[in-house]
Design brief:
With 381 residues, the chain is of the alpha+beta class. 49% of the residues lie in helices and 15% in strands. The protein has twelve helices and ten strands. The strands form three sheets. A four-stranded mixed β-sheet has the order 1-4-5-8. A four-stranded antiparallel β-sheet has the order 2-3-7-6, covered by helices on one side. Strand 9 and strand 10 form a beta hairpin. Helix 10 packs antiparallel against helix 11. It is globular and about 80 Å long. The chain binds flavin-adenine dinucleotide. Flavin-adenine dinucleotide binds next to strand 1, strand 3 and helix 12.
């Protein structure tokens, strides 16, 4: 299936080929080991930076490539080819959720101190919003920052934070009024240091990534690390949600494409009752349905992406793309696993990991239920 579909041009297609080559050479061969080790090396950030892949959408003045969200979109889709959801998630958290608020709302000094080394792969970032007591209900976070001489004193706990162990800086949401909520949350860039401790969590999939709980105990944050306007943090959260969800949709489309291709290959090679699995009508029809699902998800995602890049505010389309693709990806992985039979249940086969990795999609970045709530409001239901 050709990937040269609007809104992408020949230039993006060239980027796709070079990104794909890099991933197949430098990342994919190690995916299994990193998943087993429950960690991918920090050096991967440096390797990607050397290829210009950590700053595709950032201006050249900060060491970026001067591209735009379409270039980044190519990378999001291709990262699925690492075959390690955890590695894609760690890199994705750095480029899609941790650095964008700094790129968009950071002061010149903050960009020099955090964005530039992040693009070079020298400093790794995380975004910390979720807490033990507040996930979907973002406005109810309890982490608190209180004014002290020269800055803020931060206290509280975050959880399920991607790159939560390895991150050098943590873009953190905290209450800056007693009430908190929509007009009482601010963002801070918190350096790892005194008072910051992390513990890694065990999880179903994404094994190569360090999802962690982070405790902030009397952490002094200097005044100049307030990110964006005081008490306007909710706006920062909202500002990047559309891109984060598009990035997830693109990642799902990439993962679905690969799973489909590899499952077709398997179905052609494996024989049962005297012919290849793909020679059985039930399997052929299932593969045809799955190809339709990949195509549908790609069309809906690319349409939302095209609108986003054109400067529309495609809340409905992005929300639909996130909702459709995450569940569809998990269902496709399950169907592909079924076609693999017992082999699909074995560690040895990629589909076992792909199915586990895909389960996060309907939960992270705004769950399916929250997507439906947003759509309900957008559709005035
Ligand atoms: C592997 C992983 C990585 C993550 N990485 C990050 C990260 O880097 N940074 C970060 O800040 N967060 C991160 N998260 C957190 C993620 O965004 C949250 O888990 C997600 O937003 C859901 O929040 P919750 O887990 O608290 O579930 P809850 O909000 O407690 O929801 C529980 C269930 O109730 C449903 N529900 C909630 N409200 C409603 C409602 N109004 N109507 C109907 N149903 C509802 C939810 O959809 C869900 O099914 C990560 C999570 C995971 C698992």
């Amino acid at each position: 299936m050709s990937t040269l579909t609007p809104p992408f041009s020949d230039e993006h297609e060239e980027l796709r080929q070079s990104v794909r080559g890099f991933i197949e050479r430098e990342l994919a061969p190690y995916a299994e080991r990193w998943e087993e080790e429950r960690w991918f090396p920090d050096e991967v950030f440096g390797k990607m930076a050397a290829q210009g892949l950590l700053g595709l959408k950032y201006p050249e003045t900060y060491g970026g490539q001067g591209g735009d969200y379409l270039h980044e979109a190519v990378l999001c889709e291709e990262m699925a080819r690492t075959g390690s959801g955890g590695t894609a998630a760690g890199i994705g958290a750095h480029i899609n959720i941790a650095t964008p608020p700094i790129g968009k709302f950071g002061s010149e000094e903050q960009k020099q101190r955090y964005l530039v080394p992040a693009i070079r792969g020298e400093k790794i970032g995380a975004l910390a919003i979720t807490e033990p007591g507040a996930g979907s209900d973002v406005a109810s976070i309890a982490t608190r920052a209180e004014r002290v001489d020269g800055g803020w004193m931060l206290g509280g706990e975050k959880t399920y934070i991607t790159n939560g162990v390895r991150a050098h800086f943590i873009v953190t949401a905290a209450k800056t009024t007693r009430e908190g909520g929509h007009h009482g949350i601010s963002f801070f860039i918190v350096d790892r240091g005194e008072g910051v401790s992390s513990s890694k969590l065990e999880k179903l999939g994404w094994h190569a990534s360090d999802t962690a709980t982070i405790a902030f105990q009397d952490v002094f944050v200097p005044e100049e690390n307030l990110l964006g306007a005081l008490n306007e943090g909710f706006k920062l959260i909202m500002a990047n949600f559309q891109w984060e969800r598009l990035a997830m949709a693109l990642g799902a489309v990439g993962a679905m494409q690969i799973a489909w291709e590899r499952t077709v290959e398997f179905a052609r090679q494996r024989t049962a009752f005297g012919r290849p699995l793909s020679g059985h009508q039930a399997i052929r029809h299932k593969l045809a349905d799955l190809a339709t699902s990949v195509y549908t998800c790609r069309c809906v995602t690319y349409d939302a992406l095209r609108r986003f890049v054109a400067g529309e505010e495609p809340l409905k389309e992005v929300t639909m793309a996130k909702l459709l693709t995450q569940r569809a990806a998990f269902e496709l992985m399950d169907d592909c696993l079924q076609i693999h039979g017992g082999a699909g249940y074995m560690r040895e086969y990629f589909i076992e990991r792909a199915a586990r990795d895909a389960r996060l999609g309907p939960i992270g970045g705004g769950s399916d239920e929250i997507m439906r709530e947003i759509l309900g409001r957008a559709l005035a239901l």
